[in-house]
Amino acid sequence: MITLMLTDPFMQRALLAALLVGVTAPVVGTYLVQRKLSLLGDGIGHVALTGVALGWLVGVGAGLTPNDALAVPGAVVAAVVGSVLIEVVRRRGRTSGDLALAIMFYGGIAGGVLLIGIAGGSAGNLMQYLFGSISTVSDADLWLTVVLSAVVLTVGVGLRHALFSVSHDEEFAVASGLPVWALNVVVAVVSALTVTVAMRVVGLLLVSALMIVPVAVAQQVTHAFGRTMLTASVVGVVVCVSGLTITYWHNVSPGATIVVLAIAVYAVVSLVAPLLTRGRPAGDPHPDLPDDVDLPAAATERAAAAAKECR
Amino acid sequence: MRMSTDHPAVTVVEARALHFRAGASHILRGVDLTVRRGEVVALLGANGSGKSTLVKSLVGINAPTQGEARLLGAPVGSGVDWSRVGYVPQRSGAGGGIPSTAQEVVASGLLHGRRLRLPRGWRERVAAALDQVGLGDRGGDPVHLLSGGQQQRILIARALVREPDLLILDEPVAGVDVASQEAFAATMRRLVDDGLTVLVVLHELGELEPLVTRAVVLGHGKVVHDGAPPRPREDHDRAGHRHQHPHADDNTLGEQARALDLEVRP
């Protein structure tokens, strides 16, 4: 049965796309959660919809067949422009990141629906982008996915220490002379590329889930930045590949299955993790240091007794 | 450098007629400050007098509205040799949505200027920096689970890890117990003996007093005193105040110095 699935060329392409998205989305998601911009992926996804419609419009205007040949490049361009724009707004500080995101949400959806109408299509044409269409991944789509994933991984993993520094404490990064603005733009652009990579697999509306939920799972079991990123990627690959496998045998939406699976993993891990870590404590958490005040003898004895209890 | 012509020592920090406005508030109102190589300068002043704003302007976090700041001879910006500058911010809510270990946070101190990747042997350097602040065994601990004083020491280690020639600290020992303050003072003593220059924002001189060569006191956004370190007030009689010599400077400092006394320990 597995052999049947693995020899199906449609499924081969879909599995490879799912694998790549499963690895890359959580890498970028880790930085977004770190800078408390978990919803940035959603904002970019909405703007990418306008890009899809714009690509469609240009494609129709140029007489290309199929009409949506430029939809994915359009999404890439719009997502990159939108994400850089939000970084500019954040830097100017006139609008908070939160408000800027909200405005992106509305503008992206409205622009997409408006433009697709002008292009002679209907909102229905946008459905495959909103909810994903992994079974229709073509060779060209796959190549674009491979190239964009490679870029995202090279930057996201290669620059991880610098991106961590900027995301963890931006003021300190400035005071270290790091090119903070450039690094922020890098995170924004890489997020945009990830959104467009994941668009075919889970759809623009669920892209963000794939960036954020694996990170939420990883956070339950680790307390280090690097390990959170690694764990999240493993979770991402597992849910993407197994979710897609389920849809090979059962006629359900791949994107929705993958996201529901990820959330199920989150639920199970958050129930199980406390049981695993409850065990015995790793030793006395209180350092054994002299007090800043002179204690009466009785208090010193009580302190010694308390220290013994903790051992 | 302008200052180096009339002083034999090299100027490492220089602020000239520095103004900083935040909206309608005029926070720094023409601050002049010079720190020469080998000096340990304490920056004192009441809460809200502009100490942190000044320090942030010196390291490039705040862009001054007017005036100029220079570090190591270069205008604050990409021309500064950041590998030689260490900055310890006031303890803040810094830290993102993902827990990180002490090792990860301290390692970020090894990145500066155009160095965007960790150098070879970074683990050893991070371990050495953590040792210097007495947290050598806490490298793997998530920072958010450490106590406030320990978190403060992590920030000091993050600045020390790049082995700077100039250290700029913003209240490095606020909320740190006396034993750790003594350890910190001992570390600083060793580094200063090796040629480190220090500009440190303090509320009171405390354990660092023997090291401080000069004090600059800010009041309402201006330098109101630049010279000998003021002596602690007579009403200091808590643990940690070993140096209680009445001094004529007390009178000139007046209320500002009194305000310095109030906040050090949680």
UniProtKB/TrEMBL annotation, chain A:
A GO term (biological process) for this protein?
A: response to zinc ion
Where is it mostly found?
A: membrane
| Keyword NAD recorded | no
Subcellular localization: Cell membrane; Membrane
Keywords (A to Z) from UniProt: Membrane, Transmembrane, Transmembrane helix, Transport
Stretch forming the signal peptide:
none
| Gene3D superfamilies assigned | ABC transporter involved in vitamin B12 uptake, BtuC (1.10.3470.10)
An example Gene Ontology CC term for this record:
ATP-binding cassette (ABC) transporter complex
Chain ranges passing through the membrane: 14-33, 45-64, 70-89, 101-122, 142-160, 172-191, 197-217, 229-249, 255-276
Pfam family, any one: ABC-3
What is the membrane topology listed in the Swiss-Prot or TrEMBL record?
Answer: Multi-pass membrane protein
Q: Can you tell me which family this protein belongs to?
A: Belongs to the ABC-3 integral membrane protein family.
Q: What is this protein called?
A: ABC transporter
State the organism of origin: Promicromonospora citrea
From TrEMBL, chain B:
State one molecular function term (GO). ATP binding
KW Amino-acid biosynthesis (keyword) present = no
Domain (ABC transporter) ranges: 13-245
Keyword Transport found: yes
- The protein's superkingdom reads Bacteria
- Keywords for the protein's UniProt record, in alphabetical order: ATP-binding, Nucleotide-binding, Transport
Membrane-crossing residues? none
Q: Quote the PROSITE patterns the UniProt record gives.
A: ABC_TRANSPORTER_1 (PS00211), ABC_TRANSPORTER_2 (PS50893)
Q: Where is this region: Disordered?
A: 223-266
Family statement drawn from the similarity comment of this UniProt entry: Belongs to the ABC transporter superfamily.
UniProt-recorded name of the protein: ABC transporter
Q: Native species of this protein?
A: Promicromonospora citrea
